[in-house]
């Protein structure tokens, strides 16, 4: 054995110095053998380490996660179907019931970003030709309409200028007029920083016989999402937003009405991997549907545990305080809010106009290069037109907010951020 | 400030001892206020730590990842759109070109398990009514047919008994007879442990004008997948299989022919989040499509780096050796292969019949409880009917294989594993 091994090593050495590809001992029994078309040159880029360095992410993009949510990624792994996996599912389910304030047993997470959750919910609730009413106040509303159209829904949209939200009356008239099977609204339009109140809409939908879908991605963990009280039929978020975890799991909670609708479908949903009944079966230990990323499950579980330990009301209070502190600090620097109406502003994600004479990209470059802080200059329709700051999860912290305001003050005082 | 804070604390204390929910200072400006329906009882389960303990996973389920792939999860995070994110995409693309042996620029990863990749590929290549021919030798073939049917394809299947594979002639006659727009085959049917040779099929498909899709999940990283030479139009895998990473990313490589087909679609694919043209744009730094789980990107990048450093042929040689060692060890224990034909057996995933008089579940329980080793007793049609062992990635190691064989010897010698 040792002699053979050394002989192979010698052959490899000879092959390398003679410029040929390495010797190999494929015997044809195991799959394809290398051949003339074989390329054994490994990409040189991969021989360098990843040059990742720490920076403070205070844009609306995935922010720093809570340390514990991040450290949980390192816990020993599980195999599919181990009993502990089922325990983790139950922990997460109860955590989601807590943060969505619901008694529904249909609480679980799909794999992917929050967009996967939106797609999963619409794909499961909609059958081709169903009339779907989507309220659009910015990028995420447009996204829901796009997703619903790809599912061959009959999509009707109502629209507000970016930075505004709908009144109850506007939604109510549209629902009564169009009689949709599904109403889809964005509770927190994170691109603009707008909060859409949902009070009364669930009752309206029940009276009109339509299902009520709320994209609560930018609200969960930052403000109360009272799913049962608001009579929401499907609400979703992403693990990386207010829950302060890692992107990759997308919590979904369904009402019994929503599940009824899914069970009565004439055909299964188009997406196999996001078939919510099968996902729910796996989470209830009655099915073995798909391989979940166990580190991400651990991490989401820890995010929910942190919220349980802090207490939900304390968490929300911390977010409200940090957001007020940010507003006061930025207003003192002379920044004007992008969302005119104070009551319409989100907790945790705030947008401001670019000060006159200043360049958005130069400000964000300055913030990153001088202060190691990543901020956003807008997304979608308002890309490059605003400054957007996140004060949620680990960033909902007085010292971090103060640091952000001081850094921005420096950036705005610098001539390097002027329009040239 | 301090006085206010202590006053709130006092009120909270009074509220708690008097049995009421905690005082809160919501001012109505920020979203919904708690109300009568508010439940502030955090789930008690979440106050316990996760009881994860280390075990050796040697089933075909996600195995232990390589240490470096796992440790990369902890690197500092990035925000969406940072230049380093684009660098990581390029690193992964070049790594995938290396392991799939292709020059195609259409190499990237979707988010989710390998099933997401299968769904993404079929959804992008198929339009409703398209004729799709699926070869089924076990669970993964059935899955592809199910996914294609949900996409309203006209699905035609050819089928082999589990444990067998198709001859070239069988595939060739079916393609000529049915003239499908897409032929979908499973290169490694991991449930049974069967390897499907693909030689000549790409040429056949080009002659017959159909696209050739290969689910190479259980082959990539264990054996050569010569995508260009085999003229595969779409091949995919999961980050957790032969690449030895963490579940959650699903590499996909497309040929120019496949991309041409996608670009000529009359309507966009049904799944928004798995729109491959938009994913490719993000990976080529010409779009900003979705939030990726950055720790998973780091991890996949490190899996590919490990393979580049070891050298692909050495990696395959290590897998072939470990698999031979497993076969010899298990045969010496008297185990009979589930796959009769030696040439049809996969590298890295091997199935054996349950020895007579022995109970599959008792064997796997014994292995886990006495030896801390998780093995599989089959999945899908052959669930509970086989013993399945993984010798891939970190498990393609002589000491680990020896340890597995010794533990199984002990399990088979024990009366505790007898059928009662």
Write a compact overview of the structure shown:
With 420 residues, chain A is α/β, with parallel strands linked by helices. Chain A has 13 helices and 13 strands. The longest helix of chain A has 21 residues, at 312-332.
Task: Report the strand count of chain A.
Answer: 13
Q: What name does the CATH topology of the largest domain in chain A carry?
A: Aspartate Aminotransferase, domain 2
Which class of secondary structure composition applies to the elements of chain A?
alpha/beta
| Total helical elements of chain A | 13
Instruction: Please state the overall shape of chain A, judged from the principal axes of the Cα atoms.
Output: globular
Helix-strand layout with pairing:
The structure is a homodimer of 420-residue chains.
Chain A: H1 2-17, E1 56-57, H2 67-71, H3 83-99, E2 107-112, H4 114-125, E3 131-136, H5 139-150, E4 154-159, H6 168-178, E5 182-186, E6 188-189, E7 194-195, H7 201-208, E8 211-215, E9 234-236, E10 248-254, H8 256-263, H9 276-283, H10 294-310, H11 312-332, E11 349-353, H12 360-371, E12 373-374, E13 386-390, H13 398-413
Parallel strand pairs in A: 1-12, 3-4, 3-5, 5-8, 8-9
Antiparallel strand pairs in A: 2-10, 6-7, 9-10, 11-13
């Amino acid at each position: 054995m040792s002699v053979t091994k050394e002989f192979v090593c010698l052959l490899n050495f000879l092959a390398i110095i003679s410029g040929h590809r390495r010797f190999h001992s494929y015997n044809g029994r195991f799959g394809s053998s290398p051949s003339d078309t074989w390329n054994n040159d490994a990409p040189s880029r991969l021989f360098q380490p990843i040059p990742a360095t720490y920076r403070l992410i205070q844009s609306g993009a995935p922010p720093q996660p809570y340390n514990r949510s991040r450290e949980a990624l390192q816990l020993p792994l599980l195999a599919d179907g181990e009993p502990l996996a089922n325990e983790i599912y139950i922990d997460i389910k109860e955590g989601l019931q807590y943060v969505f304030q619901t008694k529904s047993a249909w609480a679980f997470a799909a794999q992917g970003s929050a967009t996967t959750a939106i797609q999963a919910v619409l794909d499961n609730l909609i059958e081709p030709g169903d009339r779907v009413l989507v309220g659009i106040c910015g990028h995420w509303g447009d996204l829901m309409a796009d997703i619903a159209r790809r599912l061959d829904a009959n999509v009707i949209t109502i629209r507000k200028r970016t930075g505004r939200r709908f009144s109850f009356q506007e939604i109510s008239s549209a629902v009564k007029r169009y009689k949709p099977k599904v109403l889809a609204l964005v509770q927190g339009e994170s691109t603009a920083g707008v909060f859409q109140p949902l009070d009364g809409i669930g009752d309206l939908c029940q009276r009109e016989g339509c299902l009520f879908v709320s994209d609560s991605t930018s609200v969960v963990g930052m403000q109360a999402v009272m799913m049962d009280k608001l009579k929401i039929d499907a609400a979703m978020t992403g693990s990386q937003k207010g829950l302060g975890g890692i992107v990759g799991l997308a919590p979904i909670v369904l009402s019994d009405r929503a599940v009824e609708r899914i069970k009565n479908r004439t055909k299964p949903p188009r997406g196999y991997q996001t078939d919510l009944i099968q996902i729910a079966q796996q989470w209830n230990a009655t099915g073995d549907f798909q391989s979940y990323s166990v580190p991400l499950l651990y991490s989401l579980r820890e995010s929910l545990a942190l919220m349980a330990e802090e207490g939900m009301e304390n968490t929300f209070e911390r977010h409200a305080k940090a957001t007020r502190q940010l507003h006061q600090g930025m207003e003192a620097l002379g920044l004007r809010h992008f969302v005119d109406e104070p009551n319409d502003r989100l907790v945790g994600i705030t947008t401001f106009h670019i000060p006159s004479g200043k360049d958005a990209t130069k400000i964000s470059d300055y913030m990153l290069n001088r202060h190691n802080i990543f901020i956003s200059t807008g997304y979608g329709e308002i890309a490059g037109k605003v400054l957007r700051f996140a004060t949620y999860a680990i960033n909902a912290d007085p010292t971090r907010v103060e640091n952000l305001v001081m850094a921005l003050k420096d950036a705005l005082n610098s001539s390097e951020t002027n329009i040239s």
